[in-house]
Amino acid sequence: MQKITPFLWFNDKAEEAVNFYLSIFRNGKLGKVSRYGEAGPGPAGSVMVATFELEGQEFMALNGGPHFKFTEAFSLVVNCETQEEVDHYWNKLTEGCEESRCGWLKDKYGLSWQIIPRQLGELMADKDPEKSKRVMMAMLKMNKIDIGALQDAYEGK
Questions:
Q1: Whose CB has fewer CB within 10 Å in the chain, the N or C terminal residue?
Q2: Is the domain 1-68 a CATH 3.30.720.100 member?
């Protein structure tokens, strides 16, 4: 059992969201599902709490009603090795959502994600401040991160 588990509060679409996330991540699995009974407060038979795992990270999802909403103050970072990975996660998670700058997006359930290639941190941490500045300036113009464009900025192209 994981010591700390993110707990995601949905209005009434926890089951749909969990299935959506499981369809995107290659290493995902559904865990335990608890459903509301006749006593409610949710509709009988609907998911109350579901546990699931994405890439080894455990999560819990609750259908808790409209009392709380996700904000950008909490986001999930997906660390990517290749542009193909960036494209895969970006394209899937942006279906019916809000794209933002610098690799950020808010999915159709309101949860914020960052789709970040490993190379971004490496290039921005360069000891040459001019190189890291060029990378930062290039990134600030992007929604989805383009590794090739970051590399070009790093090299001064």
A1: N
A2: yes
The phi-psi region of residue 14 (left if phi > 0; otherwise alpha if psi is between -120 and 50; otherwise beta) is alpha
Per residue in 90-120, pLDDT (tens digit) is: 999 999 888 999 999 999 999 999 999 999 9
Give CA angle at 86 (114, 129), nearest 5°: 70
Q: Which CATH number fits domain 70-157: 3.40.1160.10, 3.40.920.10, 3.40.50.720, 3.10.180.10?
A: 3.10.180.10
d(CA 142, CA 140): 6
What is the amino acid identity at position 124?
A: M
Q: Confidence band (pLDDT; 50, 70, 90) for 20?
A: very high
H or E segment to which residue 104 belongs: strand 104-106
User: How do residues 124-137 score in pLDDT, each as one tens digit?
Assistant: 999 999 999 999 99
Q: Nearest Cα to 138, choosing from 153, 127, 126?
A: 153
Query: Would you say the pTM of this structure is higher than 0.90?
Result: yes
Q: Which amino acid is at 95?
A: E
CB 142 within 8 A of CB 101: yes
